[in-house]
Amino acid sequence: MQTPLSVYLLIDKNNRLASEIFNRFYTLLCRDVEKPLSDGLDIPVYLISNDENGEIKSIDFEQSEKNAIFFFADMAVYLGDTKWRDYILKLKKQIEGGAPAVLYCVKQFEYATDLSFIKKDQMIIPPNDDIIAGWDEVSSHIYDCLIRYMKDMTQDKLKLFISHAKRDGLVVAENLRNSLRSKTKLDSFFDKNDIIEGVDFEKQIKENVKSSLLMVLDSDAYGTRQWCQKEILCAKKYGVPIVVVDMHSDVITRTFPYMGNVPSVRLNDDNLDSAINLLLRTGLRYEYQKNYLTRIVKEGNDDDDFDILSYQPELLDMHMLGKNNVLYPEPPVSEEERRILNSTKKNFITPLEKEGLLLDGEFISISVSNTNENRPDEIMLRDMVVEISRYILNAGGKIIYGGSGSRDGYVNLFSQISEKYGKIKIESEGKDLPEDEAYIYNYYAWPYMNVLSDDDMAYLKHCHLCAQQIYPDGISEEQKRLIPSTQDEEGKMQIISSLSHMRDVRCREARAFIIVGGKTKGSLTPISGILEEYIKARATKKPIYLLGGFGGEAALISKSVISRETIIEYIQDDTYESLNNGLNEEENIRLLLSTNVFEIMRLIIRGMKNVIKPKE
d(Cα 315, Cα 65) in Å, to the nearest integer? Predict the structure, then answer.
């Protein structure tokens, strides 16, 4: 399934800010991977750079309905050869020829405007050409560009409707209007100046609300004003993005009940920049989710059965929606909200709930470690793990991992995921969890768990992560308490044996395997951990979901499977049939090569539904 939008960042490999720029864009538009299971916009973001030979990979325009491309004009581009010039000129011809894309150039260097191939383009210009220091301003430009692109209004300005009460909101409303004019390229509707004489007043208000983003200046008097109430209800009726700015300075005897279920921000020293950015983010989320959910419904041939909401539902929606089934974005509402919504006889569900994958306590093994390729987009590997975990846990499954340490690396990431999921369960189900409830199991090969402190063990238990040490056969009780040295050959062989045994145990207990990333060199064992786990998993004939698009050892294994060549000497004659994962050859090739998190998850879910049947 095509996504509604993909974002591509064209960054030279010698750009000193490449990793930071990519991470900031990814956090802004997709998800903050440092906050697992947090609410993101879910827009795919990809990095395209020049390789060691100067070659630059082409963009696959078929992956998304629309493609927003940001080219960063920095000193490396300015002083480099002609490869970027040729690439951008070819890209412009493709766009002129009908490729579904738009190109935005970002000025990152004083002399960037000297570059002839982008000289005529209106650039995104950060303050002092410093994209990091001016990130807040840059992010508002990004939101603005993407909303207008998705709404097919690239030549028109976005408009903010400033909804306020004259009695105590006028001054702030005028400041907001003036700020929009001086700091942004956004237009505004301000009734004092923008209502035309001789035309129906209410009709003008309604039409302008429908075509705007609504900024509510919630002063003490706001909720009691009839026209303010009408503006709110009109926005709710037509799915207009709303942000409420809390300006209360006194006791409010009654808030207007239909102002809820929207983002809100506290007015701080009359600075409305954060409120503007929040409204733009909300506008982009609404537009993307509306298109994304519509595509899910169409793919399932459910057009006639579902209404679409771009936000979490509320009771007011039952009066505005005609169909009995309603699809809304992740995450699901709490159990208390669900109970009230279900009393309306409408069925409100999220895409995950619609997928209907039921794992019912099955253990899914995730094999992952960072590559040693120093990729600026390494953040995508962590995000992939977060999304895989979210789907498995929401489907009722458990996760097995085999890592060392407790508060670093992927053990720490899995701890955060498990802790966050536990909190979500408490919030959604409205009841406490048993303290020994575990969602993720980390199997420590002896002796790695011996170095953990009581504080470490308490932290893992608090996160609902079960830590288990796996001992090799034939080890004595006295030896179990020791920590052999890898500098000693005997100690090294004991640890290697222990790691191999731990992987055997995981393979025995897992129902399916997901393998991604992995170092290709520098391993303690004769072969890398990811490769050994693949070989052992393959021997079980259980389902394997191999993700090669994120580099590392998994990429080499994937290449071997696709080309049917012996890329790695330990793998011979492996084909997609060896994976036993419920996907056909075409689907497996897409899975082996893709870096699209959403495509990967849909393929994994499809395969698991084919091979993992619900328990009786």
Answer: 33
266/246 Cα distance (integer angstroms): 5
Q: Which residues pair with 443 in a beta bridge?
A: 468
Question: Are 524 and 496 in contact, with CB atoms under 8 Å apart?
Answer: yes
Bridging pattern class, strands 512-517 and 3-10: unpaired
pLDDT of residue 568: 63
Q: What is the pLDDT of residues 244-274, one digit of tens each?
A: 999 998 888 888 999 999 999 998 876 788 9
Return d(Cα 548, Cα 531) in angstroms, integer. Answer: 12
Looking at the DSSP assignment, which residues form a beta bridge with residue 101? 67
pLDDT digits (tens, 9 = 90+) for 289-300: 999 999 999 887
Helix (H) or strand (E) holding 105: strand 101-107
Closest CA to 205 of 173, 229, 239, 177: 229
One-letter amino acid of 100: P
CB 553 within 8 A of CB 531: yes
Q: DSSP alpha helices (H): ranges in 300-347?
A: 335-342
Which residues is 359 bridged to in the sheet? none
User: Cα dist. 65→105, 149, 376 in Å?
Assistant: 21, 11, 26
Tokens (6 digits) for 328: 């809304």
Q: Tell me how far CA of residue 297 lies from CA of 68, 320, 352, 372, 391, in angstroms.
A: 24, 19, 13, 40, 19
**Dihedral over alpha carbons 559, 564, 568, 570 (to 10 degrees):** 130
* pLDDT of 594 above 80: yes
Q: Which residues pair with 308 in a beta bridge?
A: 327
Residue 361's region, left for phi above 0, alpha for psi from -120 to 50, else beta, is left
d(CA 324, CA 308): 11
Report d(CA 615, CA 487) in Å as an integer.
48
**3-state DSSP call for residue 262?**
coil
Q: Return the CA Rg of the chain.
A: 27
Structure token pair of residue 146: 């993407």
pLDDT class of 408 with cuts at 50, 70, 90: low
Beta bridge partners of 56: 50
Cβ atoms of 394 and 608 within 8 Å: the answer is: no
The mean pLDDT of the chain is: 89
Q: What does the pLDDT read at residue 193?
A: 63
Cα first-last separation, the chain: 32
Kindly list the distances between the CA atom of residue 401 and the CA atoms of 170, 365, 440, in Å, as whole numbers in the listed order.
57, 6, 8
- Contacts of residue 543, defined as CB under 8 A and 6 or more positions apart, other chains included, come to 511, 512, 513, 579, 580, 581, 582, 607, 608, 611, 612
Which residue, 149, 179, 106, is CA-closest to 5?
Answer: 149
pTM: 0.89
State the residue for tokens 């199991």: 441
